[in-house]
Each structure stands twice: as C-alpha cells, then as structure tokens.
TrEMBL record:
<keyword id="KW-0812">Transmembrane</keyword>
<feature type="transmembrane region" description="Helical">
    <location>
        <begin position="341"/>
        <end position="366"/>
    </location>
</feature>
<keyword id="KW-0472">Membrane</keyword>
<feature type="transmembrane region" description="Helical">
    <location>
        <begin position="434"/>
        <end position="456"/>
    </location>
</feature>
<dbReference type="Pfam" id="PF00474">
    <property type="entry name" value="SSF"/>
</dbReference>
<feature type="transmembrane region" description="Helical">
    <location>
        <begin position="206"/>
        <end position="225"/>
    </location>
</feature>
<dbReference type="GO" id="GO:0006814">
    <property type="term" value="P:sodium ion transport"/>
</dbReference>
<protein>
    <recommendedName>
        <fullName>Sodium-dependent multivitamin transporter</fullName>
    </recommendedName>
</protein>
<feature type="transmembrane region" description="Helical">
    <location>
        <begin position="525"/>
        <end position="547"/>
    </location>
</feature>
<feature type="transmembrane region" description="Helical">
    <location>
        <begin position="256"/>
        <end position="275"/>
    </location>
</feature>
<dbReference type="InterPro" id="IPR051163">
    <property type="entry name" value="Sodium:Solute_Symporter_SSF"/>
</dbReference>
<feature type="transmembrane region" description="Helical">
    <location>
        <begin position="6"/>
        <end position="26"/>
    </location>
</feature>
<comment type="similarity">
    <text>Belongs to the sodium:solute symporter (SSF) (TC 2.A.21) family.</text>
</comment>
<feature type="transmembrane region" description="Helical">
    <location>
        <begin position="145"/>
        <end position="164"/>
    </location>
</feature>
<keyword id="KW-0406">Ion transport</keyword>
<feature type="transmembrane region" description="Helical">
    <location>
        <begin position="296"/>
        <end position="321"/>
    </location>
</feature>
<feature type="transmembrane region" description="Helical">
    <location>
        <begin position="68"/>
        <end position="89"/>
    </location>
</feature>
Length: 622
C-alpha cells in the first residue's frame, strides 16, 4: 500500500522549521529587542528586565551566561538524546520483543540519581565550559585531548545518523525523498544553533518536546480506539506474548533480561547523562547547583512516562496488525518503519495529521542534531582549538574572536553532519547498525576515564590514558565482533495468516529458541559500557602503580566526588594519602585556562566542598 504526502502535510513541516529558525533569531538578538521594548515602555512598572551580560559573547552562545532556569533545561536534558531513532526503535522493540523494555525505568532511576549526586556537582563547582576541561585538571593535556578527539568522532557519526535514519524510514514508507528531509532539517538546525547558541537549542527543545508528546499521545489514543479499547489491546498483546512475565535468567549473553535492562541499562544511560558533553553543558548552563540537580532528577518520571508511551505505541502497532505482520508481508522492509507505517495507515486520507506526525519524528531528530552541533562546536573551540593556540602562541584569543569562532565552528559542524548523512545515503542502511553500536562502544570509555578521575584518587595520568585506550579497544572489539558474529535475537511470534489475497505467502514468523552461546561477542550490548569501565579500572590501577600513583603530586579535593572524599577520610592511616583538602575560599582568577591544575584550583572560589548551599553559592558567582 503506497502512501504520499499532500501539500498540507509539507506545509505543516515547513512551518515547524520556520518556528525553529525564528527562535534562533530571537535568542541571538534578545538584548537589543529588550532594550528597544524598554524604551517604548512609558511606565517603569512594566519595564522588562535586561541581562547584565551580552547575549553575543562566547559564554552566552555555549552556556547562556549560566542563567538558564529549571523548565527549559529539564526539557532540553530529556529531548537531547530522545532522537527519532530511539523513538522509532523503542516502538519496534515492543512490537518485536514485548513490554519487558519497560524495566529501563529502573536503569533511569539508578543512572540519573548517580549523575545528579556524584558527577554533576564536581563539574558545576569547577565552573567549567567543557566537561573535558576536568580531565586536564585531573590528568593533564594528553588525556583531555585524547578524550576530546574520541568524543568528536563519536558525536559526528551519531548526529549524522540522527538526520539520516528517520529520513530513510520515512522515504521507504511514504516516498519522501531522503535528500529533502536531510537537507531541510540539517540547514535549519545549523542556522538556529549557530545564531542563537545554547539558548536557541534549549528553547527549541521545549517546543520539540511539546510536539513529541502531543504526537505520540495522539497516535496511541487513536490506535487504542481503532483496536477496540484497552481491554482488547491487553488481551491480544497477552495472547501474543507481548506482556508476559519478564525473563529473570542472569545469563549475560541474552539480549534482554531484567538484569541486563536494570544493571547494564543503568551503565549505558549513565554514560550519556553523567559525562557526555551534550548533557554536561546543560548542567553548567543552570543558574545554580540545585537547578542543575533537579533538571536531572525530574527526568526520572518524565523519561519513565515517555518510555511507557513509546512502548504503548509499539503494542498498538502489534495489535492493529495482528495476523498480518507488515514486515513479513513486505509492506515495510525494516522494523523501525513500524511507527511511521501505522501513522500512515491510521490517518490515511486525513490531511495535516500525517504532516504533523512527520514534524514529530523530525522534531526528535532536530533536538538531537542541534544539541550535538552545539556541544561539538564547544568541544572543538574549548578543548582543541584554544589549548592548541595557547600552546603555540602562548596567549589566548579575545572574547570577540571566541564568539565569532563559536558561530563558525557550529556552522562547520552542521555542514559536516549534513555531508556525513549523504555519505550514509550512498553506503545504504547496512551502515546503521555498525554506527549506532559504535556510539555505545565509545561512550563507555569516556565514562570510564571520568570515573577514574572522580572516584579513584590514586590513578595518575599514565594509568588513565592506558585505561582509556584499552577500554576503547575492548568496546570497539565487542561492537565489531557482535556485528560479525551475531547471536540469537529471541523475537516473539509474528503472523501473516490474516493478510489479504494479494499476499500469496503463508509465512508465519516463529519465535526463535533462545540458546545463547558463550562467545564473548554474544554479550548483551547493554553490558558494553560496564565492561569498558571495569576494563579501564583493571588497567589503570596497575599502570598508575608503575608510576608511583599520585603520592608526590596529591590530587586536589575539588576534583573528587564528595562521596569519594568521605570514604577516603575514613581509610586506615597505613594507606598512602593520594589527595589533599583544598582551601574553600580563595580569590577568583578568570585567567585559569593558561594555568596548570594546581594554580587553577587555588585561584577559584568554592562554596563548601561537601555542602550544597546553592543560593549563596550562586550569588557569589553571579
């Protein structure tokens, strides 16, 4: 069954892109607009509040002058990695494997709590611009530059996929040309991200989250009505084994069990929300520490609710197509096309609605792309270009040039992303699995090196670099091996017995018997992150011992999580001391980027290293 978009559908999609562009323009010229409005206000009572800092500086573009409030940051944290790929993939997960994926809610609770209480306070109190600056303070330039390059490689591939994958899915379902969606969304996203910086990214994320929520709830609501109500939905899903009891087998070589989802899933989520620059940049943009922590913790119920709605969309698809699986019948070629396909079926002949859902899918893609472009431009500027310039010229660039370079890097990254998407278009859909697995394989080592820095004070730069490289090799090895030697997937039964006469096959898709082999390459992909972290720890400690740990150069306390300091204070005196308490109050010096870590940490102001007196802390710094 062929579907096509009408002019009204394209109009809705175009209007959405225009709204995003206008948000970028407004955020770029926010200060002049406010000043002109104030001149027009005759009554002092109604005057708008002006920012004391310009919105055209590099810090405004990358961190919003550290004045962003809870609601937009909370929404942006959620939307940043809620890509179109995850949107379609989660629905197909419920369609093919059932409702067991709902246990990721437990992983969210663990990962978000750890990110908010262990990792994020260290970043925030150091007043950094890039998360990788921490690595230079803790381990030196070599570790910082290596991690930054790994991150750049990881994100440029992921951002390009976030553009390409939904375009591919929609083109195969509706005939929408891939190049049209890639080019339009890529150019608009690059435009408003470069122009408005993180403020534009955050506020467009709010709009995108509204679109996503409205669109998914509409699909689920209409779908439930079409299949005969909730009772019928659960009955058919139960008969199809989609909501049966969960797998409690501790075997790590099974794709999904309650243990892989809760424990392995927690590690994977932690690598995204604790140490990924895209998310850390949002925490650093908050007006105070409490706001940053709440923006993470409030994402636990929000992500749980959104995960439930996505899985419900998959169940609705399964029940609606019960007896005539569109994958087996050839109506769609891949499982991630199920969600776009059911939208085309449910709203066939209804103008505007399909265009609205097209906007929903690409809203998810745009949120990921804009967040990635902004964070990647920040890393290129702060972690690679400026340190390299300081090394060569021995002096920093002016604020005006920093601001200009922030815009230029955003444009360059955006255009490279579009170019990479066209490369994927030439290579075809087979590249998708490898590229997505690559993202996970790289995220684990990055989490590992930050964990070594904040949790294990005896690890020095030699150990950290060795741990990073070895864990990266392990992660890539598991990824490539898992693709070349795939294990059993355990798909649940799918039938075509009720398909129309035009479909001549009577194929019935039978669930595969799950008998996982014990090859290391068949390890569940959710455990990759934890394996990388464990590898880094096992390698880093002996390497650090070879170079006599940090006994001669103690680690400043601000570079460790407060839980780590509390534990090490209680260790017996026979353990060599690897860290030292640092002064809580010293004069501030904004020229820290040209200093070594010791000088930097003794010239910054810190409010109560172990406490969280956020209001006073915020006032002192702002």
């Amino acid at each position: 069954m062929a579907f096509t978009f009408g002019w009204s559908d394209y109009l809705i999609f175009a209007l959405l892109l225009v709204v995003y562009a206008l948000i970028g323009i407004y955020q770029r010229f926010h200060d002049p607009i406010v000043r002109k409005l104030n001149r027009l206000c005759c009554n002092e009572k109604w005057k708008l509040k002006e920012h004391s800092l310009s919105d055209n500086t590099a810090e405004a573009l990358t961190l919003g002058n550290r004045r962003l409030t809870l609601f937009p940051i909370m929404s942006s944290v959620m939307a940043s990695f809620l890509s179109a790929v995850s949107l379609m993939g989660t629905a197909s997960e419920a369609y093919l494997y059932g409702f067991q994926f709902i246990l990721m809610i437990v992983a969210y609770f663990i990962a978000f709590s750890v990110a908010a209480e262990v990792y994020m306070p260290v970043f925030y109190k150091l007043r950094l611009v890039s998360a990788h600056e921490y690595l230079e303070l803790r381990f030196g330039k070599a570790v910082r530059w290596t991690t930054s390059l790994v991150y750049c490689f990881q994100m440029i591939v992921y951002i390009a996929l976030a553009l390409y994958a939904p375009a591919l899915a929609f083109s195969q379902v509706s005939g929408l040309p891939i190049w049209v969606s890639v080019l339009s969304t890529g150019l608009v996203t690059t435009f408003y991200t470069a122009l408005g910086g993180i403020r534009a990214v955050v506020w467009t994320d709010v709009v995108q989250l509204v679109f996503l929520t409205t669109g998914l709830l509409t699909v689920v609501s209409v779908g439930v009505v079409r299949v005969g109500g909730m009772e019928q939905l659960w009955r058919v899903a139960y008969e199809g084994l989609r909501v049966q009891s969960f797998d409690v087998d501790p075997n790590p070589f099974k794709r999904h069990t309650i243990w892989t989802l809760m424990i392995g899933g927690a590690g994977m989520v932690l690598s995204i929300y604790a140490t990924n620059q895209t998310q850390v940049q949002r925490y650093l943009a908050c007006r105070d520490l409490r706001t940053a922590q709440l923006s993470i913790l409030l994402n636990i119920p929000l992500n749980a609710l959104f995960l439930f709605v996505q899985l419900m969309a998959g169940l609705v698809s399964y029940v609606y197509f019960a007896g005539c699986d569109p994958i087996s019948s050839g109506s769609v070629s891949k499982s991630d096309q199920i969600l776009p396909y059911i939208v085309m079926v449910l709203f066939d002949g209804i103008p505007v609605i399909r265009g609205l859902f097209l906007s929903v899918i690409f809203a998810a893609a745009i949120s990921t792309v804009s967040s990635g472009v902004n964070s990647l431009a920040t890393v290129l500027l702060e972690d690679i270009f400026r340190p390299l310039l300081l090394f060569v010229r021995k002096r920093d660039i002016s604020e005006r040039k920093r601001s200009l370079l922030a815009v230029i890097f955003s444009i360059v990254v955006g255009l490279c992303t579009i170019g990479m998407s066209f490369v994927f278009m030439v290579m075809g859909p087979r590249v998708l699995q490898f590229s997505f697995s690559l993202f996970g394989a790289v995220g684990g080592p990055i989490l590992a090196v930050f964990t070594l820095g904040m949790v294990i004070p005896c690890v020095n730069w030699q150990g950290a670099l060795a741990g990073l490289l070895c864990s990266l090799a392990v992660g890539l090895g598991l990824t490539v091996g898992g693709i070349l030697y795939p294990g059993t997937s355990g798909r649940l039964p799918l039938s075509t017995e009720n398909c129309t006469a035009g479909f001549n096959s009577s194929i019935v898709s039978i669930a595969k018997t799950i008998d996982p082999s014990w090859s290391i390459f068949h390890l569940s992909y959710l455990y990759y992150t934890l394996v990388c972290v464990c590898t880094a720890i096992v390698i880093a400690i002996p390497f650090s011992a070879i170079f006599k740990f940090n006994t001669k150069h103690l680690v400043p306390g601000q570079l460790l999580a407060w839980q780590t300091r509390a534990i090490y204070r209680r260790l017996p005196s026979c353990f060599p001391n690897q860290w030292e308490e640092t002064p809580q109050r010293q004069p501030r010096d904004d020229l820290y980027r040209s200093m070594d870590s010791t000088t930097f940490l003794t010239t910054r102001t810190f409010k109560d290293v172990d406490g969280i007196d956020n209001e006073q802390f915020s006032e002192e710094w702002n």
